[in-house]
Amino acid sequence: MDTQSDMKTQSASTISPVDVRKAVRALRTSLKETQQTFSKRLAVGIATAVRYELTLAPHGRMLAKLARIAEEEGFPTQAEVFRDALNQELGLIATANVAIPARRLNLWQLYQPEDLPKAYARYVKHIARQGRSITAVRLEFDCSDGKTYAADVATPKQL
């Protein structure tokens, strides 16, 4: 199976659950990991990892995690599928009425703490160009014990 050509998608097309499931399998096999090892890397049960490949594509934070792993391990094709699927899930996929396509904006970049003000400004500008306003901004901190801490941030109107 040629995973690179099988996984190739266009940013403006719809990413199907089948595409995502294929990308999960391609990533795991490219990493040369068993399903058990891969499930440990993802911090999910083995049954969940198997479902991600066979029946139920991952979503939300797991897509972001898979994109990060694929990028860090040198598998950009799979990383692109996961990022595009997440952007699509969040309504950020490139369309004719969006001023900046999600891919060019690179919304899922890992920011250094000192770069957060610049990232904040980029998001505000991107959202404003779409004719939308920001109603809430939140930083989330996911901890190793499973707890999540959140900090509310002032919206542009509150500044």
What does this structure look like?
With 159 residues, the protein is mainly alpha-helical. The protein has 2 domains: 3-89, 434 Repressor (Amino-terminal Domain); 111-158, no CATH class. The chain has helices spanning 3-7, 17-30, 35-42, 46-54, 61-72, 76-89, 102-105, 116-129, and strands at 137-142, 148-153.
Cα-to-Cα separation, first versus last residue: 53 Å
- Spans of at least 5 consecutive residues with low confidence: 1-12, 93-106
Radius of gyration: 17 Å
DSSP helix count? 8
Work out the oligomeric state of the chains in this entry.
Answer: single chain
Our count of domains comes out at 2
Quantity of strands, as a count: 2
**CATH topology tier name of the largest domain:** 434 Repressor (Amino-terminal Domain)
CATH architecture of the largest domain: Orthogonal Bundle
Mean of pLDDT: 78
How much helicity do the residues have? 40-55%
Global morphology: globular
Major sheet strand order: 1-2
Structural class: mainly alpha
Major sheet summary line: 2 strands, antiparallel
Overall CATH class of the largest domain: Mainly Alpha
